[in-house]
Amino acid sequence: MTPIRPDGVIGRDHARVDGIDKVTGRARYGADEPVAGTAFACLATAAIARGRILDIDDRAARRVRGVLVILTHRNVGDAIRPGTWMLDKGHMATAIAPLASDAVHFAGQIVAVAVAESFEAAREAAALLRFEYRSEPHAATFGSPGAEEVEPRAMGETALAAGEPEAALAAAPVRIDTEYATPAQHHNPLELFQATCAWDGDTLTVWESSQNVRGYQHGLARQLGLRPKQVRVVSQVVGGAFGSRGELGQATAIVALAARRLRRPVKLVASRRDAFTIRSFRAETRHRVQLAAARDGRLLALCHDSRELGSRSEHFALAGSDSTARLYACPNVRTGVRGVAADRQTPGFMRAPPETPYLFALECAMDELAWALDIDPLELRRRNDTMVDPVHQLPYTSRSLVRCIDAGAAEFGWARRDPRPGSMREGEEVVGFGYATAFYPTQVGPADCRVALAPDLRARVEVGTHEIGTGIRTVIAQTVADRLGIAIEAVEVAIGDSDLPAAPLSAGSSSTASVCSAVALACEALRARIGKAATAARNAPLHGLEPAALRLGDGRVHIGDASEPLAEAVRRACRGRPMVEKATHTPHGAPPVIGPVLVRRGLPVIAGGSMLRDRLQFAFGAQFVEVRIDRATGRIRIPRMTGAFAAGRIVNPRTARSQLMGGQVWGASAALWEATEIDPRSGRYANCDLAEYLLPTHADIGRVDTLMLDEEDTRVNPLGIKGVGELGVTGMNAAVANAVFHATGLRVRTLPIRLDALLAAPALAGA
């Protein structure tokens, strides 16, 4: 790969190429597609958590003017196949077929769909449907009668072991043994879940916001008994996803079936309330962390035992200790993850899925250990830094944690911290400083792409990736402009369509590295053709020179001291028509042949992180936060936070900073506000709207400083890119909890931290 120029387009702060379209309304989200003759669908969902539907009274619903069809298990049955769950090498959020039987598996399950000429008529009809149920005993969450412990299916390893942790715990002079809990949370993207389905003969087109258009294509084909080529999925822009649109939900196939039976397009835009149950969520977790250390702070043992809530149908677990066990140097390690099956929909992936809950437990425990040792929390991390995985003794490709700690501490002013809990006060407020480490695996998936360069120096790049809000169009355009020496404004980027060359699931902060690596390979082939044409032409300035020494810049082709206009060299290479190159990038650790084939089938193939046999690939960061707590009311404020991150080569500092800053805010939200409340008596969510699902507002978030440190690591991929989208989330919830302890002297080990948790704080009024 041609080296990246330090003054090139890669690494330059550039405005989003689709920014104007988004702010002027020209960008089309899934529900915006104008399809003539569209009918509208509305969902009816189960009011019980477990049981059977005994009867459905739809007489009043059918009398609503404009109602076209009402679909239930009575007229759907086996018309829609179950599909295959993602961890079973499928595409679905659950293997339960929609409207297949009278069984109710969880509260909020789809039990009917009303379709009408207008949205209002469909909504009225759905509300008039009456269901008679036979309710069965259900388990809502941890500790509920009937909840059963199960062996989970996980993306990571559910058990790790090294050394003799039990003996080390028993012999260590300093030990920590604590338990932590994190709640259920929901993604709540601004764009509601939706799908518009239209048939042309036996060919189906679906407009739906997605993180995996190929996965939706193949999943729907399986559900509807079609060949994948009979299904096209279009997803031009996505109004937020955060993991909720990675797996195919069950509503889309119902909409497609309705459209086929009515012989006209059908559109569904689910309500905010329905969004809490028709897709996945971040499940509750419970953790026990045991740490043992020498008096100088060196870790001697780390044990992390966890439980995660799952559904009856799929025993899903994140198994985040697969990563946390490798964070610090420690000779004796043991982790174990168990699942708990309850009557809920299957949980799934939500931004930084394993790291957000698991790092909360570990980084709070590390803070507790620092207090027990009377060592500065930053110094404790420095003393346990490592370039080698303590479990399998594999090296990190790069690790800039200490650099992040030092840079973040200087920017934040950590040196002003009085280590005594409750000692820092200003007026009627107590002040706390908190720290936690941030880290996230560097993951890359196989990707195909096609790049065409025209004689007029305009380029078109085609790749079936997704604009989920991160700015992927911009970084793709920057890669093409940089590699071909053309203006970024001359690059057209086509994405978000299952007809385009396949890209992996947009998840795990892998898209930029995956897609731009493939794009760079295609551009490298075009550069070679330009060099060959430039050096082969007689009477040309570069004739007879070595094409491998070609450089592109300033609108010219350079070889040594000789050069000619780029336009002339490209015109000669094109011979009157665009040059087209296709490329496939298969990252280190991915199956070299079958990997790209699986991605073309919409299956998740991502390599890196701790999944490699020969090394570890991670990005690191340091999270600092200041909290202020009113001594009289217990109100918590976050006036400022600082994050320092090292994530390889940053393609666009502007979009990367926005992602990291948004992650820092989200991490604070997880610490103080976010939790999906469940009523254990009914098994139903109690706060499934944005009025009661608490999120921070602008007034709640103060200054957010985001530092990005230079880091070069071309072992992770040819361009040296590490993902940033999820890195900024990790560690922040623990940093807030640690700051609350520093301010009050009270350890809060259950998230979110609310007013009632602080009533016993010794530093507050009434102590």
Summarize this entry quickly.
This protein has about 775 residues and is an alpha+beta fold.
Describe the overall structure.
It is a single chain. The chain is globular. The chain contains 17 helices and 34 strands. The model has no long low-confidence stretch (mean pLDDT about 95). It folds into three domains: about 35-135 and about 190-240 and about 245-275, Aldehyde Oxidoreductase, domain 3, CATH 3.90.1170; about 285-440 and about 610-760, 2-Layer Sandwich (Aldehyde Oxidoreductase, domain 4); about 445-605, Aldehyde Oxidoreductase, domain 4 (2-Layer Sandwich), CATH 3.30.365. Helix 13 (about 510-535) packs across helix 14 and helix 16 (about 655-670) packs across helix 17. A hairpin with a 4-residue loop joins strand 32 (about 680) and strand 33. A seven-stranded mixed sheet has the order 3-5-1-14-11-12-13. Helices cover about 25% and strands about 25% of the residues. The longest helix has 26 residues, at about 510-535. The protein is of the alpha+beta class and about 775 residues long.
